[in-house]
Amino acid sequence: MVDSGGRVVAWATQTGRMVNLVEERVLAGRGMSRLLKLPFDAAYLLINAVAAALDRVDRRYGTHFYRLPMTVVLTARRAPPAS
After folding, report:
1. Cβ–Cβ contacts within 10 Å for residue 41, how many?
2. Residues 6+ apart with CB under 8 A from 19
3. How far apart are the C-alpha atoms of 79 and 62, rounded to whole Å?
4. What is the dihedral of CA 48, 50, 55, 56, to 10 degrees?
5. CA R_g for the chain
6. SS3 sequence, the chain?
7. What is the pLDDT of residue 33?
């Protein structure tokens, strides 16, 4: 079993989604004005930069007792034949 994620990925995904909801509401009916989109682009960059820094801290100092995986990959393998 392999998980990719953790607290930081869960935080970044949720925060990015909340910003996206605001962006959709602000830009609805106004077209995709580049000027209106710039603050949201900056917010996404900030979220990713903070997440990268937090991920480094979490990998070094965090306890991984509580995991919030965004993706869990299970690989099933056929049992070897009985001898």
Report:
1. 11
2. 40, 43, 44, 47
3. 36
4. 120
5. 19
6. CEEEECHHHHHHHHHHHHHHHHHHHHHCCCCCCHHHHHHHHHHHHHHHHHHHHHHHHHHHHCCCCCCCEEEEECCCCCCCCCC
7. 76
How many separate domains does the chain show? 1
**pTM score, whole prediction:** 0.68
Q: Does the residue 21 lie in any domain? A: yes
Quickly tell me which residue has 């995991």 as its tokens.
67
Rounded to an integer, the average pLDDT of 22-51 is 87
* Domain carrying residue 9: 2-73
34-61 and 7-27 helices cross at what angle (nearest 10)? 170
